[in-house]
Design brief:
alpha+beta, Rossmann fold, 2 domains, 28 strands, globular, binds 2-acetamido-2-deoxy-beta-D-glucopyranose, Subtilisin-like protein
Length: 629
């Protein structure tokens, strides 16, 4: 021990006497790789690139910091932080860097083998498997897929207890790649571990276009939405305002589809296109055309552009055609600090750029655009497929965007209380056929995004009647997180729901403790949307439709605020749950979100895990948002 300390002093690190502590488990794999067969132990002499993600500072204050600029009663409401202030606030401390470095050196890794990334976010070392297994008290195995693909990983790993506070995660370890084959990412709809396609579902028949306000129960158009939500606003600050829609390649819009829609419903937009922001080698592909390729983008853009015209809409098209992309990739592009931390990108969950595949994008899009004031994302994956450390690292970035003044809206999913594709969990929270434990989504359970569920004009009803929860083709995603604690802003609303309308499911069906993040936050119509798609009109359903509609309303609120010399609203959740907004929503009290062999939750008066607070009445939310500083 003494000898070691002397060596350390010579090596110029620290003189502190090393503190020994026993190992504690840091991460365990989120989901067992059912389709993969565990094979032999990885060769002990093989070299693996070990990367240790260091803890960021001030994460314990993240909710407080976000609330200070977004809670309506905060004296600093709207005083958003600059990107530089965000970097300074969250950079890992020297103490963390030194503690982890000392642990590695004490364990026999010579200091000259260690590299700290430029941003200090990562400590990297090329280690043998034997060294990694010893450091992490882990066992690395080779896993084989019936397709012939191979990968390696460990089921869990440990670190000394005194090191644990200094690291967020270590790779490569438990973050198992659930995509059977990288080339199949081209069609990644709903595949475990990749962004699922909460996409619209097309009804069998193409429709003839004779929609009127009298038929909004059968066909939703811009006119129906304007009537339902009292949403009539022509923007005046379009040159100062920004509105982004995220799409993941190969999903892409078709120009002729936009024009088909605009000719019928917004003639002033014929020929208009979104402003392309191409992230990580993205391009708006037109080679592959079908509902699966064009449905999501056509829907999002036709409605976002139609509802906010003439506001230019930014298309954040993400991922090259070879590798595709995950949520962290679009975050890299709008949040340079995430990127220069080498952020949360995880080779098994996200596209890793530069893409080394032939033809792959050889750069990385890092902070290429200022975060838009509002961003709408109609994609999601199951929370059960990611580890808590991975989920937290990404969720932290949404909080940072909120601190900088952006509103991030995610659709809540289309399978009710089940996960993508109707998958549910067993009592150990693993995906299981016939599982009856609810399977919440991600990133929609992150408490720092706004989760948007789906409603419908009930069959036979008009736009003047109350809507119900969407129960046609899709069911509104909603429920309770297994990872994130309850944010303060929704505590009263959710506890009221749990005590006044206690759902009667067997213990363990969902976390009913009242201490976890519940979703969605609010909702909008998600049934029977008329869209131009592949040269025809089609009807689509989904929370995919709801998210851009709510995002359009927030964008118009920002327009009015910017015009009045105020800041954009940023993270809206603390405001919409506040008592001033109590009557600003149309409370939804009909319908449910069935799934997992159950009727799901039921929409009731007040907040519920089907439709959240309800649908916005634009005429009511606008003056309330305008009254804020
Ligand atoms: C952290 O270390 C860097 C160089 O290694 C030094 O420039 C900086 O002042 C240190 N920060 C603190 C807070 O000690
Ligand atoms: C690990 O090895 C690779 C390949 O030789 C090299 O490019 C990289 O810089 C090394 N990383 C470290 C931290 O030494
Ligand atoms: C529910 O969440 C709370 C708070 O995170 C946690 O302590 C508890 O163990 C969870 N209960 C179940 C059944 O998972
Ligand atoms: C929306 O709010 C306006 C203004 O308060 C009101 O006149 C209208 O009836 C409301 N619409 C609905 C559907 O509640």
């Amino acid at each position: 021990m003494r000898f070691l300390a002397l060596l350390l002093a010579v090596a110029g690190t620290t003189l502190a006497i090393p503190t020994r502590s026993s190992h504690v488990v840091h991460e365990t794999r989120a989901v067992n790789p059912l389709e993969w067969i565990q094979g032999v132990r990885l060769d002990a002499s093989q070299i693996i690139p070990l990367r240790i993600g260091l803890s960021q500072q001030n994460l314990d204050r993240i909710e407080e910091l976000l609330m200070s600029v977004s809670h309506p009663e905060s004296p600093t409401y709207g005083q958003h932080m600059s990107p530089d202030e965000i970097v300074d606030m969250f950079a890992p401390s020297n103490e963390s860097i030194n503690a982890v470095r000392d642990w590695l050196v004490e364990s026999g890794i010579s200091p000259d083998r260690l590299k700290v990334s430029a941003s200090k976010g990562w400590l990297q070392v090329n280690a043998t498997v034997a060294e990694a297994e010893d450091l992490l008290k882990a066992k690395y195995h080779v896993y084989e897929h019936p397709s012939g693909a191979k990968q390696f990983g460990c089921h869990s790993y440990s670190v000394p207890e005194h090191i644990q506070p200094h690291i967020e995660l270590i790779k490569p370890t438990v973050h198992f790649n659930h995509r059977p084959n990288p080339h199949q990412k081209f069609k990644r709809d709903g595949v475990l571990g990749s962004p699922g396609f909460n996409g619209p579902k097309k009804s069998a028949a193409h429709v003839t276009i004779t929609p009127t306000l009298e038929t909004c129960d059968q066909m939703i158009t811009l006119e129906c939405l304007r009537a339902l939500y009292d949403f009539n606003y022509t923007p005046v600050a379009t040159d100062k305002n920004t509105f982004g829609i995220v799409e993941f390649t190969p999903q892409a819009y078709l120009g002729p589809d936009l024009d088909l829609f605009f000719r019928n419903f917004t003639p002033s937009l014929v020929g208009k296109r979104p402003v392309n922001v191409l992230i990580d080698g993205a391009f708006v592909q037109t080679a592959a055309q079908s509902f699966d390729y064009n449905g999501e983008s056509d829907l999002d853009l036709e409605y976002a552009m139609g509802l906010t015209a003439p506001q230019p809409v930014l298309l954040l098209q993400t991922g090259d055609i070879f590798e595709g992309a995950g949520f962290d990739n679009w975050l890299d592009a709008v949040d340079g600090s995430f990127c220069t931390f080498e952020g949360g990108d995880d080779p098994t969950q996200d596209g890793i750029y530069p893409d080394t595949q032939p033809g792959g994008y050889k750069g990385q899009s890092c902070g290429i655009i200022a975060p838009p004031h509002v961003v709408s994302i109609s994609y999601g994956q199951d929370e059960s497929t990611v580890t808590a450390a991975f989920a937290n690292r990404q969720c932290t970035e949404y909080a940072k965007l909120g601190m900088m003044g952006s509103s991030i809206l995610y659709s809540s999913g289309d399978s009710g209380v089940a996960g993508n594709g109707g998958v549910c969990l067993d009592s150990t929270k693993q995906p299981a056929t016939n599982g009856n434990v609810f399977n919440p989504g991600f990133p929609v359970t992150c408490p720092f995004v706004t989760a948007v569920g789906a409603t419908q004009v009930n069959p036979g009803s008009t736009v003047n009647d109350p809507e119900g929860a969407c129960e046609q083709v899709i069911f509104s995603g909603g429920g309770f997180s297994n990872i994130f604690p309850m944010p303060s802003y929704q505590s009263t609303a959710v506890k009221n729901y749990l005590s006044q309308h206690t759902p009667s499911f067997p213990a363990g069906t969902f976390n009913n403790s009242g201490n976890v993040r519940a979703y969605p936050d609010l909702s909008a119509n998600g049934a029977n949307y008329v869209i131009g798609i592949d040269g025809q009109f089609g009807l689509v359903f989904g929370t995919s439709a709801s998210a851009p509609v709510v995002a359009s309303m927030i964008t118009m609120v920002n327009d009015a605020r910017i015009h009045a010399g105020k800041k954009p609203v940023g993270f809206i959740n603390p405001v919409i749950y506040s008592s001033d907004f109590q009557h600003a929503f149309n409370d939804i009290t009909m319908g449910g979100n069935q799934g997992c062999g159950t009727p799901g939750f039921t929409a009731v008066s007040g907040w519920d895990p089907v439709t959240g607070l309800g649908t916005p009445n634009f005429s009511k939310i606008l003056p309330l948002f305008m009254a804020l500083p």
